[in-house]
Amino acid sequence: MPAKLSVNLNAIAMLRNRRDLPWPSVTDLGRIALEAGASGLTVHPRPDQRHVRFSDLAPIRALIDTEFSSTEFNIEGFPEESFMRLVEEHRPEQVTLVPDDPAQATSDHGWDFRKSHNLLGNVVGRLKKLGLRVSVFADGDPDREALAIAKDIGADRIELYTGPYGGCYDDPAEGARLVELLGETADIAHDLGLDVNAGHDLTVANLPALVARIPRLAEVSIGHGLTSDALQYGMAETVRRFRRACGQDV
Ligand SMILES: CC(=O)[C@@H](O)[C@H](O)COP(=O)(O)O
Ligand SMILES: NCC(=O)COP(=O)(O)O
């Protein structure tokens, strides 16, 4: 089964936030992405709401519930109390826990599972009681002991942080080295019984090698590269291009 595509709407929201006006509409672009066959929508609300705003979440939840009930809502973020309240209110099908400091421009590393064992254990327990799938952001580092902690605390999936892989678009040898590390990390996660997602700086160009190395990849969430292409090709055509790059029959 090819990897599913979840479209991250943060970059659309950031463009909208340039003005105190409601366009481009995050929900309308989300609808076009789902109509073009995306399997879900992702948002990463940050405490300062500089990307997606807390008020964007209810319309996205309603869009999925009323028009695309076979697709999923994925909410990503650091599990502070305000984030946990958002998740409790909007009940996404998947929560992706990311170790972001509010001052970070964007996500740039996975969890240190040894250091964050207790924090993640409590939070994952709370989310599992709500019946939500939980994914935890992980570096492409084939450290079996660390990944075993992710399994122990009750996570369902890891999301591989693919930023370094996305960043070496002009260095094929480094790309090949990094995709192998991501692949070895995924192999261990699968062996431990964790499913594997991936995301950050994925593009139509770098997806094929990733899905070839990780054929059981469950889902990719993509925002920045996909939104860039949407400006050039339109959202619907871009979603189809990314779905093909995931190996989907489009
Ligand atoms: C966890 C991750 O890699 C993405 O959620 C990324 O943080 C997207 O958010 P921005 O596009 O707002 O940086
Ligand atoms: N989880 C990663 C994500 O949602 C999108 O990241 P990016 O494509 O905006 O880098």
From TrEMBL:
Q: Which spans of this chain does the record mark as coiled coil?
A: none
Q: Is Cytoplasm one of the keywords?
A: yes
> Which species expresses this protein natively?
Shinella kummerowiae
Name of this protein: Pyridoxine 5'-phosphate synthase
Site positions (Transition state stabilizer)? E159
Q: Read off the HAMAP family from this record.
A: PdxJ
Q: What is the lineage of its organism?
A: Bacteria, Pseudomonadati, Pseudomonadota, Alphaproteobacteria, Hyphomicrobiales
- EC number(s) recorded for this UniProt protein: 2.6.99.2
Active site (catalytic residues): H44, E76, H200
Identify its protein family. Belongs to the PNP synthase family.
Q: In which pathway does it act?
A: Cofactor biosynthesis; pyridoxine 5'-phosphate biosynthesis; pyridoxine 5'-phosphate from D-erythrose 4-phosphate: step 5/5
Recorded hits in InterPro entries, A to Z, give: Aldolase_TIM, PyrdxlP_synth_PdxJ, Pyridoxine-5'_phos_synth
Q: Reaction catalysed by this chain?
A: 3-amino-2-oxopropyl phosphate + 1-deoxy-D-xylulose 5-phosphate = pyridoxine 5'-phosphate + phosphate + 2 H2O + H(+)
